[in-house]
Fold this protein.
Amino acid sequence: MYFALNDDQTALREGVRDLLTGECTPELVRGAWADPAAGAAALWAQLTEMGLPGAAVPEAQGGLGLGACDIVPLLEEAGRVAAPIPLVETAFVAAPLFAAAGLETELDLLLEGKLLVACALDGSPLVPYGQFADRTLISSDASAGRSIRMLDAVTTAAAGSAVDSIDATRAVLSLAGDRPEGVRLDLSPAQATAAWQRGVLGSAAELVGLARTLLAQTTAYVKDRRQFGVPVGSFQAIKHHLADALIAVEFAGPAVMRAAWSLDQGSSNRDRDVAMAKALASAAAERVAAIAVQCHGAIAYTTEYDLHLYAKRVWAGSRCWGSAEWQRRRVAVALGL
Amino acid sequence: MYFALNDDQTALREGVRDLLTGECTPELVRGAWADPAAGAAALWAQLTEMGLPGAAVPEAQGGLGLGACDIVPLLEEAGRVAAPIPLVETAFVAAPLFAAAGLETELDLLLEGKLLVACALDGSPLVPYGQFADRTLISSDASAGRSIRMLDAVTTAAAGSAVDSIDATRAVLSLAGDRPEGVRLDLSPAQATAAWQRGVLGSAAELVGLARTLLAQTTAYVKDRRQFGVPVGSFQAIKHHLADALIAVEFAGPAVMRAAWSLDQGSSNRDRDVAMAKALASAAAERVAAIAVQCHGAIAYTTEYDLHLYAKRVWAGSRCWGSAEWQRRRVAVALGL
Amino acid sequence: MDLEYTESEKEFRAQAREWLVANVPRGLKSGDTAEGFAQHVEWEKLLYDARWAVVSWPERYGGRAASLWEWLIFEEEYYRAGGPPRVTQNGIFLLAPTVFDFGTPEQQDAVLPRMAAADDLWCQGWSEPGAGSDLAATSSRAKPDPTGGWRLTGQKTWTTRGAFCTHMFGLFRTDPESERHHGLTYFMIPLDTQGITVRGFDRLDGDEGFAEVFLEDVHVPDEAVLGGVGEGWRVAMSTTGSERGLTLRSPGRFMSAAENLISLAQSRPDAATPILRDKIASAWIDAEAYRLFTLSQVTSIVAGGSPGAQSSLNKVFWSELDIRLQGTALDLLGQEAELDGAWTRSFMFALAGPIYAGTNEIQRNIIAERLLGLPRK
Amino acid sequence: MDLEYTESEKEFRAQAREWLVANVPRGLKSGDTAEGFAQHVEWEKLLYDARWAVVSWPERYGGRAASLWEWLIFEEEYYRAGGPPRVTQNGIFLLAPTVFDFGTPEQQDAVLPRMAAADDLWCQGWSEPGAGSDLAATSSRAKPDPTGGWRLTGQKTWTTRGAFCTHMFGLFRTDPESERHHGLTYFMIPLDTQGITVRGFDRLDGDEGFAEVFLEDVHVPDEAVLGGVGEGWRVAMSTTGSERGLTLRSPGRFMSAAENLISLAQSRPDAATPILRDKIASAWIDAEAYRLFTLSQVTSIVAGGSPGAQSSLNKVFWSELDIRLQGTALDLLGQEAELDGAWTRSFMFALAGPIYAGTNEIQRNIIAERLLGLPRK
């Protein structure tokens, strides 16, 4: 039993953290609000240099051959800086799927950092990042191992229309009406289900990262900000809000890492464990975002302050890949309820 | 529009409050723990002098002819002192039912203060006060206006066995196995439903009264009790707990009074309004009880201190006559959800 | 107990409903954008022309001398008809009660009719950089001008719709030696006065609804003072009482929102899980409980009572009810909640409820200290 | 990452499970009643004889020198097998870690084996009338006896199972001039010493589990002092750290409770509404999250770390999880929740979780101040 990252994992995580802290600044995220495609491209180029596109691709197929336990901490780092890019979808969902399905052209482009992928995996008409993604994966019931299809950018653009997300970096496309057929990927049901699970888990990891940033920013703010002659953070009510926020994050984090382990081990409980991770991560991120806004007060409400960049990513993303309630229902079923 | 008690109602309420404050002391309630029948009889004799058994019975049939708006404040007062007696069941549910069904023998005895009535109206095998009640009303689906039957004390005792409630004053009987038929009351479905609604509403009123007492005792305690060199009540966390308790009570109270009005008016929304009242009252009482325990600390845990007399009545009674969740479901249905 | 409205109140309701149904505009842009604000002002003028802008005011100021009951009825009908948020609300609901209480007859005549007609558009100048809910930390100052009137210098911020308004009210420190809530004075200031710079900035929900207001040696006449020099704290507390109390959030708004939530659920039966139906029923119950609480409060006010610290109960309850209600709507919307639509904007706006008009932390302190009598320290 | 136990740990689990399944007693009365306490002591002696009483202790004191991992495994198996609450827990989990850290070898030899064997039964003397979570307000005092040893006078209260135990540990003020957490000393006291009166009183859940302990000029030898005169605060903090941390509430207890809750729901399908199923899933998820958090904590402790203020996270989380879990059981029971059964007793006992071992209000202060670095004042 050893429930912690090993040295390699820690080093990789720190490398990615250093890169993202330096590159994916609030200014870059703000730039992506104005031009999502350009923001994503700039960041993706940096991450490609570190080999991230191929992180989950077997070494034999040109990737890094990393497992979920290696990659999930990196996705949490991406969440921490609100990386405005479909990192989960491209590197964690699509890349190993392309490898498994033998889509060599797409895989090569992806490994070179020239392909970003969007997902509409859970039957919603909405495709986050669909406005600029090079490929879109689409499935009506991936969690149950149904087929996954792929659209190219031209087909996607023709079938969809841009809609406004509260987080402009997500460049959401809406596929209303009849969806194009696209190319059906040659996958086993287990491979399709695993892709869904990676998406859910990756999304959970990002939400935990976002929650950590919201908590850190709020903690710093209430130490500094004075009201009634004392730091706001010296009021017991504020302390208890932030204690609750820390509890939410600290008990979600290990569940996310355990789900990564279950995926890597092919555990028979992996579906339950992934669902539990997302249920806790969504609930924690929503809770922390609300506490962060409340503890900041009015300044949380201005877009000149950075907080909204992270809070809106939470509100936009927490119900994607299955809301907390939806995921708890999966856990309930797994428990025989 | 006038949402307050009128002078007569206020005077009646104050009369009952004065009586109960003087008579239904914590010592009397403790006595009823040891001997529930004797405790109830002692208190019932006092209340009979004020005419309470006939409160809801038409004047033509020897009662006071009061409406729900008159009686509900009295039931709240009974809750406030944790009156160890089936007051709701006897005076608010059974008395007008006996009058409506033409059960003259029972009505006369009841008006004379010689008959206490227990209810198992919601299909549960448990009969609070069944160990000493003179009659037991029983129905499997009274809320839908199904028939109501009546058992005498001998039949009830033969069919049931005493079980331990966490609140010994409730002298619960369990009717396991086949239930005796008893006497079927000659009632219209509307009369049966109205009896159920009075029970739900009366129970809600008692819970609001209990919550008020728990809040008052806790408020007094935290003003007095010192920790870390200051009154416990000066800590912001304690203040906020008690503010939440007050909010819960203050927003449940008007809903209970409005449901009384809806019953008196025969409003088409009366079922929804009664359900809403009980949903809020149960939730408020449970919340306030938990806050009361937490703000007291260890002393809440000793039976030498009075708090438990009121908290246990809440825990014992909050799920009777329909839990908060069950009642919200009725509201949801009424709203077309 | 009498929970029926009188025939005349029912007639008032019928009139209001008829006019509102026929006249409430659809599809206005947010009143917190420049374009939307102009649309809203047009609507407010229409309201005023039909004498629905300030129903509870005396007729000479453009009202109908409506009772509190009629005001509640009007608000219910306003929101039921889908009426948009009032961009005049900071004037009508916050400044006006103070002018009625503290203004001279000349001030009342000068301020109120133009406010009702949406000719003057008022914003509040409460917050300053470094002082949010802590009104007593005001550092903007005013000094007497030797030639008469006052000279104002300082900075206000978080001024809702400040970039679009014409006038501002707020506190300034007139006694430079004073601290905290002493030595403050309440001023009413035309924003086109020389020395004032207004800078709008964006709000979380995407609208440019906030402004900073910079004042540099701004001259205002003595008539700009409301309620006496050095009396600002007492006067302002009266206004924040209004802000927290009945006036800012009438029950009609939440009842209407709860009905809309039920409609949303009915339009999405697959999304309306038993858990969400329970939350929706809760939201409706809470909105109704808020209405009932308000009715009992108004009964007491009509009988001569004053809500006092009770208004803190209102503030905490409606603001947290609103978050639960709007959050449940997002759960019904599922992934679509991320779209920049009415419900999601309402959710984000609802999160501000526990912050403005005195944070809920402060309100809970008030409840505990003034209603329950817990010790301050 | 490696979330598998080793073969030897699995073997340890199998042994523990086999013995526990064969030996765990059924139907004991509550250990907080006189009759039940005697039954529990018998069970504790059986545990000791099979060397399962103190698995993590050295073999010379009756343990198995089990690792922290093995201790977690044992706890899981203990609760899974339905093992009753340990009436020895205040000794084993609170006093013993302090004796290991601060005791002399002679004290360790004198105290630990008899504690493990349930020959000496320890209760804690923390609270005093007027001082609950405020340990530093201790006013019981000890003064040096001219002939050696100490003279103790004062009153302790809320002493769990005090009426049945043989020994007590607690703080006494040895420096009469001192205030708050200075000048306190940690004593270990046989309750049969002359001058001690123990008065049991009833607890909310009906058991007579509390006691007041009156000390009137009680003589104890110098060896009764643990960790040095005047060092009581530091020593006690080490114990309360244990109390709040890993040791008092191992995850096995909540995992077992969550499994029992699932069984309860399965046995009452009509009562298990979708809302309750969601709450049950939440309770299970939280119990599992608590287990996982603990595993990462133990990983860090095994690597030489110390949980420190992190144990406040544990305390708040398990105590509030426990209330949600037991409350959900009552909802499943419906009206039957009022019966004096195991679930209802567990619910009432769970309400004490946020109170004892330092209230959750204090824990949240610690979390905010020590883990997040918020200012104390």
